[in-house]
C-alpha cells in the first residue's frame, strides 16, 4: 500500500493498532465462552454424581475434561495472540516509518514483548510437563489409605535432574516476564507520544487507567470486589484506547486530505556551530 502523505501512514498505523485491541477483546470473550461451553458439556457427560460420589482420586472423565478445557483455552489464545501481534506489528511498523524517533520505541517494545511472551510460554510448558504428573498423583492419593503429603514432595518430580530442569524453566519464565514488562512499558511510551501528537487525551487516560488496574489487581487478596474492580478498570481502559485510536486515525486522515503538515517530529541531532573566524 502506497501513501502520498505522512499523515496517511499515521492514520493507517493507528487503525491497525485499533483493530489489534478489538481482536484482543473479541478473542478474550470467545475464549471465555468456549471454555464454559466445553466445561459444561464435559460436566454433563460425566454426570454430577461422579463428582460428588465420595470416591477417591479424580472422578472418571475429569482428567479429559480438564485437558479439553486447557486445549480450547490454548487454541483460542494462540489464534487471538497471532492476530493481535500481526496487527500490532503492522501498526507500529507504519508509525515507525512515519517518525522513527517518536514511534520507533513502540515497535522495539513489541519485539521485546513477543520474545518475553515466547519465553514464558515455553517455560510454562516445561513446568507443566514436570509438575502435572506429580499433581495428578497427589490428587489420586487423596482419600486413599496412604495419607498424602502437601505439597507433593520433590520425589514425585523424579530425579534431581528433573528438579534442576524445573528450576531452570522457572528462571526462564522470570526473564521472559521481565522482557514482556519492559516491552509493554515501551509500547505505552509510543502510544503516549502518538496521543500527544494526534489525539485528545483518551489514549493517555487509558494508559493511566490500565496502570491503576494493575496496581489494584496486586491487592486482590483484600477482597473479591477488588478483583472485579481491576477487571472493570482494564475493560474501560480497552474501550478508551479503541475510541482514542479511532479518533487519531480519523484526525490524521483529515490532516492528510487538507495537506496539513505532520506534528513536529523529534529534532535531529544538532550539529555544533562552525568555529568563529579568528
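Q: What amino acid sequence fits the structure above?
A:
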Amino acid at each position: 500500500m502506497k501513501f502520498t502523505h505522512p499523515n496517511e501512514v499515521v492514520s493507517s498505523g493507528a487503525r491497525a493498532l485499533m483493530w489489534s485491541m478489538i481482536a484482543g477483546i473479541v478473542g478474550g470473550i470467545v475464549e471465555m465462552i468456549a471454555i464454559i461451553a466445553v466445561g459444561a458439556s464435559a460436566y454433563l457427560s460425566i454426570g454430577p454424581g461422579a463428582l460428588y460420589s465420595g470416591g477417591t482420586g479424580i472422578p472418571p472423565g475429569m482428567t479429559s475434561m480438564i485437558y479439553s478445557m486447557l486445549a480450547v483455552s490454548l487454541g483460542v489464545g494462540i489464534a487471538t495472540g497471532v492476530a493481535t501481534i500481526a496487527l500490532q506489528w503492522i501498526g507500529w511498523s507504519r508509525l515507525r516509518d512515519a517518525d522513527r524517533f517518536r514511534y520507533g520505541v513502540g515497535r522495539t517494545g513489541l519485539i521485546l514483548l513477543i520474545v518475553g511472551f515466547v519465553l514464558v510460554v515455553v517455560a510454562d510448558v516445561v513446568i507443566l510437563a514436570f509438575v502435572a504428573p506429580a499433581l495428578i498423583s497427589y490428587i489420586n492419593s487423596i482419600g486413599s489409605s496412604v495419607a498424602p503429603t502437601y505439597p507433593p514432595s520433590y520425589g514425585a518430580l523424579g530425579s534431581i535432574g528433573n528438579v534442576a530442569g524445573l528450576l531452570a524453566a522457572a528462571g526462564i519464565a522470570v526473564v521472559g516476564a521481565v522482557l514482556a514488562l519492559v516491552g509493554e512499558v515501551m509500547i505505552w511510551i509510543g502510544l503516549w507520544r502518538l496521543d500527544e501528537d494526534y489525539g485528545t487525551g483518551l489514549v493517555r487516560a487509558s494508559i493511566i487507567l490500565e496502570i491503576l488496574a494493575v496496581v489494584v489487581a496486586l491487592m486482590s487478596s483484600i477482597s473479591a470486589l477488588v478483583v472485579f474492580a481491576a477487571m472493570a478498570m482494564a475493560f474501560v481502559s480497552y474501550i478508551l484506547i479503541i475510541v482514542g485510536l479511532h479518533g487519531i486515525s480519523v484526525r490524521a486522515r483529515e490532516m492528510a486530505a487538507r495537506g496539513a503538515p505532520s506534528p513536529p517530529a523529534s529534532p535531529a541531532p544538532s550539529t555544533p556551530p562552525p568555529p568563529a573566524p579568528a
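Q: And what stands out in the fold?
A: Residues 145-157, 266-270 have pLDDT under 50 and may be disordered.
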